[in-house]
Amino acid sequence: MRMQANGAASDLRWVYRPPRGRRSPESTLAGAPVFGVSAADAAGLVDVILADGTRLTAPAADVVAEPI
Q1: pLDDT tens, 58-67?
Q2: Burial class (CB in 10 A: 0-12, 13-18, 19+), 19
Q3: Alpha-carbon distances, residue 55 vs 11, 19, 26 (angstroms)
Q4: pTM for the full model?
Q5: 3-class secondary structure for 13-53?
Q6: β-pairing, 63-67 with 32-37?
Q7: What SS3 class is residue 11?
């Protein structure tokens, strides 16, 4: 993904980034590149597919764009 703000372009990638204080098996996947995300359900959860094929369900806020 490429974004431009104030005339400067930035290359971004989607990554799985759960909050640091959350203890769960998924916390070990923090920083993993995201391949795909479903639409959010009524509870605000999305199905996330990571680049390595791992699938998980997480709050939509856990999938963020970060600079490459």
Answers
A1: 999 999 999 9
A2: exposed
A3: 25, 18, 10
A4: 0.79
A5: EEEECCCCCCCCHHHHHCCEEEEEECCCCCCCEEEEEECCC
A6: unpaired
A7: strand
